[in-house]
Amino acid sequence: MSNAAPPRPQPRPQPGPNVRAPYRSGARHGRRLPPYVYWRRRAIAAAALFTFLVFSYYGVTLGFALNNPAYGVSLQARMAEWGRQHGIGGIVTWAETEYNKLHPALKGGTPSQHAIPTVPTVQISKGVQPLAPPAPLKTPAAVPLAHEGVWYPAGRLTATGVPAVYTTFIRPDAIHTSYVVGVAWMDTKILSGQLYSGSQIPGGGPYPLSAPISATASKTVVAAFNAGFRMQDANGGYYTNNKLVMPLRPGAASVIIYKDGTMNVGQWGRDFTMAPNTAGSPVASVRQNLNLIVDHGTAVPGLTNPNAIAWGKTLGGTFNVWRSGLGITSDGALVYVGGAGLSIADLADTLVRAGAVRGMQLDINTDWVQYTTYAGPIGTSVAGAQGTNLLPGMIGNPGRFFANWWTRDFFVMSLKPKYQNASTAG
Predict the structure, then answer these.
(1) Contact call for residues 165 and 222 (beta carbons, < 8 A)
(2) Is the distance from CB of 185 to CB of 371 less than 8 angstroms?
(3) How far apart are the C-alpha atoms of 76 and 159, rounded to whole Å?
């Protein structure tokens, strides 16, 4: 057995200045990576997670919008509403503008039979109309169509059989003669107005009056129609139920409704303020949208100027698209205009033809322009099945105002109590 000592371990040779040490990565080999490597990995992981979350969020919300009827009837409208809601409204407006440049309104021709509304067959009595019925409208087209400009009763009558609403149609101008525009005249002595507010427009609810119209309220409803732009595009304010949802802008075109149901259209700060009306009734609601397009019985100057602030940055005013507007006549009747092939100048001209002394633009584009009358015995609940749109081309279902998914604001016109009973209607 050897008594020799075990060999002593030799020291590891140190690399010289020209010799690279063998690479050993990670903690497995007892060495840490340089700090910048860890930070780079973390940054890449964070960026990947952020990208995943963003795309997931936008994908989910877009999918929700494309399947939500409150965003419109067409997929195009639903995508546009989604885009405006998610901060890319400028891109949406640019896309809509380019589309309308490539697809301008048709010139000349005559409307298809599917575009012309069916003449109502409402039987009226010989009762007294509180406001003088409207005079026939003269079409801007060279040759009038059958029934063009002729008024017919529509919707519910009073208890004594007097119409609260008359409707007709005319062409928008002498150039785009293959389109028709619907016009509704409302007797404000018979009708009481209310503003129904939505969770999307104006937002900030809940509100006592909001879609759906209740079964009880529907028992006297005669008509319902769209309000104005999204509030971020309206260049105006919103007041209802003793709540200032958005500050009211002096000089803005405004629909004002008093608590007694009286409804008017004019310029805020000049034609009316928050003071009660002449009957002493307080203000119930104010809905503003852009500036007046009709004043003192004529179209205001500059309507052919594409002023993004005055006439709305959404498509401006020069495109001939679906538009709507509301005006007031000298004796207090309300006039609604809506249809295709309208520039703002055409909209103002049609309001003037219908007798408006002041008028404003409401909402635009196919999905949002809607005026519907409702028929049925007074005291009986109605819904979409009893509704008739002003024009066949209005694609909004007459039942949308009776649906709990409807999230935009709108106006409702109902019979005043005096006209619900034959003994008091006169």
Answers:
(1) yes
(2) no
(3) 43
